[in-house]
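Deliverable D5.2: sample structural annotation.
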Amino acid sequence: MPSHSIYPLPKLQHLPASLPLDGAVRLELQNGLPVLRASTAVQRRSTSLLRKQQETALSLEETDELDRCEEIDDYLSFLNRIVWDLLQSQQP
């Protein structure tokens, strides 16, 4: 197996100021595989911002917060894909 990754590792510039650093991510098992997910609190905040965005314009801070939450969700999805692909490649 090559020592370099086939996936370019995305870089997060910073986390949203309102993101609770403690308990922001939870680990679940899905079909026996570990899956990283945003915590319920982070999901609620993202949903709240998305609903507000449908009704009115978000402030610059809220827009930035929503963008950071989406980046984190993308990052967690990326990590989950890597774990899934790694485990699948080890199947006989």
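Annotation notes: The helical segments are 40-55, 60-89. The two ends are 15 Å apart (CA to CA).
The annotation will be released with the project's public dataset once the embargo ends.
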